[in-house]
Amino acid sequence: REMTGYKYVAVITDREYGEDFENFLKRHGVSRVMETFANGTAEPNVLDSFGLQKTEKIILRFIADGEKAAEIKKALYTEMNIAAAGGGIAVFAPVDGLGGESARKFFCGEEKSEKGESSTMENSEYKYVMLTVIADKGNSDTVMEAARGAGATGGTVVRAKGTGAEIAKFFGVTISADKEMIYIVAKRELRDGIMRAVMEKAGKNSGAHGVVFSLPLDAVAGINGVEA
């Protein structure tokens, strides 16, 4: 489906490729990129099946209008070979709204877009979601054990210190330094089961004191080498 409106884009890749992806985004006119270091959570058997090793990750996040997001999505395959084992993953989520022209310029630069200042999904037929779990530090294994039991294959952990705290604020959530965030990309039909499993084993009434929310993704690049 053609992507319209504004998109929140997050590219997760091995930290050693961070500079390559930064240069790639600059070539495609992305004016402001927020970066966060993180760690992968995939188990050894999952890593082996994708030809991956457990490495430190970098998350590059930005907002672009739909036309540029579609251009970048295509170029991730043709220029960055994101479909290859270990190439990374990119997710695209619709932005519900931007706070006026100043916000648009902050995220997207001076070039005026004809897409408007807000964006909603045309329908609910999205294939993937990004689940975000906020839990006490040291509980990412508990969260991921619960999530995997409901069908998740892996996740990315961001701890709330330094730039890690900034990503929480970007989502409109403030977390303290004793928390960590776990991002899990999953198929839409697995969403409810994963959320229930996480809340049962790592929810507010557990030692993890976790909470979870979900964002719809209208495009994903890099999962199983299949474009969605």
Plain-language structure description:
The chain has about 230 residues and is α+β, with helices and mostly antiparallel strands. It is about 30% helix and about 30% strand. It has a nine-stranded antiparallel beta sheet with strand order 8-5-7-6-2-3-1-4-9. The protein is globular.
Name some characteristics of this structure.
228 residues, alpha+beta, 30% helix
Give the proportion of residues in helices.
25-40%
SS elements, strand count: 9
Low-pLDDT segments, ≥5 res: 46-53, 114-123, 161-170
Mean pLDDT: 76
The termini sit apart by 9 Å
As a whole number of angstroms, the C-alpha radius of gyration is: 17 Å
Major sheet details = 9 strands, antiparallel
> Assembly state here?
single chain
Strand content: 25-35%
SS field, number of helical segments:
7
The shape is globular
What structural class do helix, strand and pairing data support?
A: alpha+beta
What's the order of the H and E elements?
EHEHEHEHEHEHEHEE
Order of strands across the biggest sheet?
8-5-7-6-2-3-1-4-9
How would you summarize this macromolecular structure in one to three sentences?
The protein is of the alpha+beta class. The chain is built from 7 helices and 9 strands.
